[in-house]
Design a protein that fits this description.
The protein is α/β, with parallel strands linked by helices and 291 residues long. The protein has a single domain, classed as Metallo-beta-lactamase, Chain A. It is built from 9 helices and 12 strands. The longest helix has 20 residues. The radius of gyration is 18 Å and the shape is globular. The chain starts with 12 loop residues before the first helix and ends with a helix. The N terminus is likely disordered.
């Protein structure tokens, strides 16, 4: 598959203004965790103009929740599928970027919450792609779908099971996969390479940087995951499954405005250590309170 070059589009104005206003308090791009902007949720989610982050990595998500496409020499890998009225958004976004949704060979679902798997049946039926998710989150998704009576709209047969320490290879691209419990029991984190003008950068995506439970066992798992990631993750590029906590759209604005020769603002090797240290401090405090 040939590489498709295109101009870098700008975000929808309303979504952009909302995010830039909410990010002013988040500081610079060293990586500090930031809270969800007030009023932002599944019920207020809006599409944004899809864009290319690196030569082989694209954003096809919303202002509320992320979805990405990795382009390989033998097809596309879709990470997460959005939800509800946005079930077909990733396909529409790919077409806007000059990518063919029918080239999607694999769909990786990062975890079993509806805003990440809700478009799965739509995208799997459209593309015929294989689907990957960790065992615990296949079970979580299936139970949620049964409980809500949504089998016809959302259910897909169980397919590939993500294994901790496993890999997924498609063409010239290999993704290292890690099961990182906390946000859910089967959050799938991943590590892969991206390229820009011949230069290679390492991406690490942790889709579970928050924990709503104050139950001690859940917090213990979360703390263990953070400590593991501190040893494991030393990426050039740090991504999540929701955009606010990594100043995602602030970086996009700098990407869109940069001059020739300027660095890609998503490249920030100092971001992950700062973010993880802050997450660990918060989680350990909550764990001490829970005990």
């Amino acid at each position: 598959m040939k590489t498709i070059h295109h101009a870098r589009p700008r975000l929808a104005v309303a979504a952009l203004a909302f995010f830039l206003g909410s990010m002013l308090a988040a500081g610079d791009a060293h990586g500090q965790a930031s809270p969800r902007p007030q009023g932002l949720g599944a019920g207020t989610a809006q599409p944004v103009t899809p864009f290319r982050i690196f030569d082989n990595l694209y954003y096809v998500g919303l202002d509320f929740v992320c979805a990405y496409v990795i382009e390989t020499s033998e097809g596309l890998i879709l990470i997460d599928t959005l939800f509800g009225d946005f079930a077909g958004h990733t396909a529409d976004a790919m077409e806007q970027l000059g990518l063919d949704p029918l080239d999607v060979e694999y769909i990786i679902v990062t975890h079993g919450h509806n805003d990440h798997y809700g478009g799965l049946k739509t995208m799997q039926e459209l593309t015929g792609a294989r689907v990957m998710m960790a065992e615990a989150d296949w079970a979580l998704m299936e139970e949620t779908i049964r409980r809500n009576g949504e089998e016809d709209a959302l259910g897909v047969p169980r397919d590939m099971v993500t294994e901790d320490g496993g890999t997924l290879t498609l063409g010239d691209t290999t993704i290292n996969l890690y099961v990182t419990p906390g946000h859910t029991d089967g959050v799938t984190s991943m590590e892969f390479s991206v390229f820009e003008d011949g230069e290679e950068f390492e991406v690490f995506m942790w889709p579970g940087p928050t924990l709503n439970s104050n139950d001690a066992p859940a917090l213990e798992n979360f703390v263990a995951t953070i400590r593991r990631l501190q040893d494991l993750a030393r990426p050039d590029v740090w991504l999540h499954s929701h955009p606010w906590s990594v100043s995602f759209f602030d970086k996009y604005e700098r990407l869109a405005a940069r001059s020739d020769g300027d660095p890609n603002p998503y490249v920030n090797p100092g971001e992950a250590p700062v973010f993880l240290a802050q997450r660990l401090e918060d989680a350990e405090r909550r764990l001490a309170d829970a005990r």
